[in-house]
Amino acid sequence: MTLQIKHIALAKSAKLTLAAALAVAVFPIAQSQAPAAPAATATAAAPAPAVFKQAPLPYAFDALEPVIDKATMELHHGRHHKAQYDALNTIAAGNPDVAKMSIEQLLANVSKFPAGVRNNAGGAWNHDFFWQIMAPADKRGSPSAALLQRIVADFGSVDAMKTQFNTGGATRFGSGWVWLVVKDKKLVVASTPNQDNPLMDIAEVRGTPIIGNDVWEHAYYLKYQNRRGEYLANWWQVVNWNEVNKRFDEAMK
Ligand code: MN3
Predict the structure, then answer these.
(1) Ligand 1 center to 76 CA (angstroms)
(2) Does one domain contain both 108 and 161?
(3) How far is the CA of 6 from the centre of ligand 1 (A)?
């Protein structure tokens, strides 16, 4: 809808554009109604296709300095992440099955969709998550007693968990992510290639991520160049434990 309104605003001939906007507005509805069973699904009055919207970064681009530099954050959020949302919206515009689902629903059913959905719904979700589990210095907090207890039970110590996580990130060949995942009420470290994540139905380790780090070169290369290990070690300084605690509690319910 935003797009169509923008078209109206930009138009020189209001009459012509209104007609065009109406045509565009009506078309996706007609399209999504077409495959529906006759009469029986009257309750499922086809909703307008979802538009996936990238949220603004929840803090300033320089808020994670000196661990992650401002230029990296600007490019990462403004170019890389935005491109994934743009690509997902392009797919959704031509595929009503994609448009009607939430990103989480797409991930849970990703094996049924073309690779573009896997890459771009994955990338959209992964980065939304990533921005949220990092925070400026005054908002980072510390691990809750419940989380600490679980970490010690599953890894022996916080340091042992971090070592396993950093090793997972360092040994992920090429591009991907490393995760701390709640699976069957326990914590495990897993890594995934490309923009895959543990919420996907194709994931080797399926569960709820509560921490995740992006080990694509675009996440660290400007500041760390080839030193992925140094990036992984420093990254713990910017973790938003308040958010991680919340996600842990939710996943353990
Ligand atoms: Mn990235």
Answers:
(1) 6
(2) no
(3) 29
Say if residue 88 is in the same domain as residue 189.
no
CATH number reported for the structural domain that contains residue 103 in this entry? 1.10.287.990
Predicted TM-score (pTM) of this structure: 0.81
Ligand 1 centre from 80 Cα, in Å? Answer: 6
From the list 173, 167, 253, the residue with the least C-alpha distance to 210 is: 253
**Cα dist. 150→146, 181, 197, 248 in Å?**
6, 12, 22, 10
Q: Are residues 155 and 121 in the same domain?
A: no
Q: Which domain range does residue 21 map to?
A: 2-33
pLDDT per position as a tens digit, 194-249: 999 999 999 999 999 999 999 999 999 999 999 999 999 999 999 999 999 999 99
Q: How far is the CA of 23 from the centre of ligand 1 (A)?
A: 37
- Alpha helices for 34-101 (secondary structure H): 70-75, 82-94, 96-99
The CA 127 to ligand 1 mean position distance, Å, reads: 6
70 CA → ligand 1 middle, Å: 14
Residue 45 Rama label (left phi>0; alpha psi -120 to 50; beta): beta
Q: For ligand 1, an ion, list residues with CB under 5 A.
A: 214, 216
Task: Output the domain CATH number for residue 147.
Answer: 3.55.40.20
Domain count, the chain: 3
